[in-house]
Amino acid sequence: MFTKRQEAELITSLQWRGEIPLKFAYLWEGSKNRENIAKKRSWWWINLTEKVLLSKRINDFLKSFENKEKINVFDVWCWDGLPILPILDELNKNGVKFRYVPLDISQELLDIAEKNIQSRYDCEIKKILFDFELWNFSETTYDLKIWGYSNLLCFMWSTVWNFWDKNRVLSNMRDSMWIDDFLLIGVEMTNFSKINKVIQHYQWDLIERFHYFIPNQINIIKEDTNFIATWNDKDNQIEARIIINKNQNVKIWKYNFILEKDEQILVWRSTKFNERSFTKLLSDSWFRTELLTTTSDRSYVLSLLQPTRYSV
Asked: Rounded to two decimals, what is the model's pTM?
């Protein structure tokens, strides 16, 4: 089950913020729920959009690695490993030696990603079990640069925007990078005047099943709750909550407490951006934009970044 640190973080989040951190939903059997969502989304909505855009502009992104014969491809929050296939396909086609480095909080998702990549490429794979919401991984990026490798970090499928403290996650990413490393990151652009259409994407059975995985583990009974997705206009984010309809006796290891009727537990947040707010966030996090490209309808952005040299 949970590590001691995860238990403490979960209890603190529930009692002080009324939140179950989304990252815990990826653990153990929850990885299967996440894999099912990934498969469903791989041929529709933003995931297909990102794949098409990445495939179209892949050579532009990889020009930054011209004359580089060996590349570490870090797949941060790797899911099933499939989002970065256009990158690996292009490297493989051009005879560039690459090492696949998936990072995730879930050992199960790391194993799924490893299996998917192994079935396609003859490459070294180095799996890293890691919670990058808490720390940076600069020792790993340094160690893997030995013997002439360059580093490309990939944060795909808009995953970073689901975290409670996005600035901290981006800071940990930046602090994991060396001055000549690159970060490729994707984000959906949102028309805030049509937010009700966006909310509909978060109201289907697979999403709900995914979010109930951890509540079920800690004794919250689904039949005594409701699940809702709403828009937070102040923070520009969609929020999914579980509403308690009947007192629930929560149990986390040896720790017990009561969630009372009408309490709401946040189980998902997805911050939305336009181009201005997105580029400002990156600048405020001390990233320099090397290349930014959008779909023709400007609904999705992929950006290649480097850490700003004089950040402090």
From this structure: 0.88
- How many Cβ atoms sit within 10 Å of the Cβ of residue 123? 15
The answer to whether the CB of 173 falls within 8 A of the CB of 153 is yes
> Among candidates 66, 64, 73, 72, which has minimal Cα distance to 149?
72
Is-contact 302 53, C-beta < 8 A?
A: yes
Q: Which residue ranges form the domains of the chain, and what is each CATH number?
A: 4-29+192-271 (no CATH), 42-189+273-307 (3.40.50.150)
Q: Is the pLDDT of residue 247 over 90?
A: yes
Give the pLDDT band of residue 69 (cuts 50, 70, 90): confident
What is the pLDDT at residue 141?
Answer: 94
Average pLDDT over residues 264-284: 90
pLDDT of res. 189: 86
* Token pair 């529709």 in the structure block, residue: 44
Rounded distance, CA 297 to CA 294, Å?
A: 8
Q: Is 64 exposed, middle or buried (0-12, 13-18, 19+ CB in 10 A)?
A: middle
pLDDT of 164 > 80? The answer is no
